[in-house]
Amino acid sequence: MNFRTAFAAGIFAATSVLANSAGAQGLPAPGPVIVAAPAAARQAPTATSTPVVQSGILQLKVTITIVSAIPTTTPILCQFSPSVSGQNSTTSEMDWYQETGSVLATRTGNTATCTVRIPYTWTLHAASADMVTPAFTVTATDTTGVGRTSGTYGFAMGLATNGAFPLPANGATTVLTRAIRL
Q1: Closest by alpha carbon to 132, among 159, 166, 182, 161?
Q2: What is the pLDDT of residues 52-103, one digit of tens each?
């Protein structure tokens, strides 16, 4: 419970006690109680930052080795869902965006490939602290709903821990590659 919640709960409890004891003694209930929070508990107005518009392209290329019994007539769908998040250390403003794109893979024998391009334009308050976390799935499902899915969230790319990496430079095209078995 934070200070404001505790302070408000205390005022409510005190007002309830006064009202109940006055009513029990046949006295009129007291009027509204107005209490100001101590100066130390008041928060200064929140500072805001000047947002920055950041644009670019995130692209995922996936090479799929088909090891399951997936008929050649079954479409293979690739979905790429990168997200960006971060917090401005001065103003505490948060950024969070997620983009999603999908394409059908091209299959030749037991290999399929797909490339998902996601152009983005984000208005950010913490561009220098924001991190991009890539996620993708590859799904092959037949018309009866039977199929296989493979994919990851925050796949490791050698760029940073948990697969997240710093926001690319404005206007950049960032190409990520993955090889999976389905």
Answers
A1: 166
A2: 999 999 999 999 999 988 888 899 999 999 999 998 888 888 999 999 999 9
100: three-class secondary structure by DSSP: coil
Give the separation between CA 41 and CA 34, rounded to whole angstroms. Answer: 16
Is the separation of the CB atoms in 105 and 64 below 8 Å? yes
The 3-state DSSP class for residue 15 equals: helix
Neighbour tally for 13: CB within 10 Å: 10
Which single residue is written with the structure tokens 């821990």? 161
Whether the pTM exceeds 0.70: the reply is: no
Q: What ranges in 78-147 are assigned the alpha helix state H?
A: none
Residue 116: closest CA among 76, 166, 86? 76
Tokens 């505490």 sit at which residue?
Answer: 92
